[in-house]
Amino acid sequence: MSFSSEVKDELSRQLSQARHCQIAEAAAIISLCGRILISSEDRYCIKIHTENIAVARKYFTLLKNTFHADTEISIKQNVYFKKSKLYTVTVGNHEDAIRILQAVRLIDEHQEIGENLSVVGNLVVQQSCCKRAFIRGAFLATGSISDPEKAYHFEIVCATMEKAEQLREIIAVFSIEAKIIRRKKYFIVYIKEGAQIVDILNVMEAHVALMNLENVRILKDMRNSVNRRVNCETANIHKTVSAAVRQIEDIQYIRDTIGLGALSEGLSEIAGKRLEQPEATLKELGAMLHPPVGKSGVNHRLRKLSGIAESLRNERERSRQEKKE
Questions:
Q1: What is the DSSP letter of 153?
Q2: pLDDT at residue 197 in the model
Q3: H or E stretch including 278?
Q4: Number of Cβ within a 10 Å radius of residue 212
Q5: Protein fold of 3-205
Q6: What is residue 307's three-state secondary structure?
């Protein structure tokens, strides 16, 4: 089972105690993945589709418990994906369909279809608990969440920009910044930041999924921290080794050109120690000197040796050029 299916399975087992929250959740479901059918005799019917059996059970239970409506579930093979099935929850009774649609504010008193997409003016999502239920219903209807082991991505698909903006505003009430992107003919409300996905799971009350995601985040953070430390230490070692190699090359050049005896006592001593201890750190080299010298003092002497070697190389190059001329 995918992580997205696990989240939906957990949410499908929840049923809010308050009827107004049940209505808010039903409103989101019908709005995002429901169809309102009107016969030639002006008889209303509601059909809600899903490919998830747990979600289909939730739709059935929600409509049955909240509205005491006659509800049916039908199953058929998905035309586009042979291995999956399409579950349809249907409220075929006209009176039941009208009661539900009026309760979720998808039709008015004249039975005209329309939806109030204002977060402030929509009576279905006035209370904070109802907003939570609405987001939960929206996610059950058309939402998905990626496997946190691979990436952090939460999204809910909307048919119109207006619906997407309404959903984003409702999510923003909980201090979560969702964004909208167009994908073909749909509008996607999405969140990509791990901490904010944890927050949205908490808002929807998917507490088991939240803990699983947090565990993954902790492990990933630990791995990233270890990798950063190892990379840093590797880079430092490489830098130290490279510096030591250059120092030895400079000292050997001085030795082979003018001899270490031509150097001052301090430079001659550090040059000899570096040749004897090619893997020693600056601090370790300093401790070997008599008297001991600090890290900065050792670095200063080695830089002087580098300067001397560079001067000798330049002098040798000038001599070559003069001979050619």
A1: -
A2: 94
A3: none
A4: 17
A5: Endonuclease I-creI (3.10.28)
A6: helix
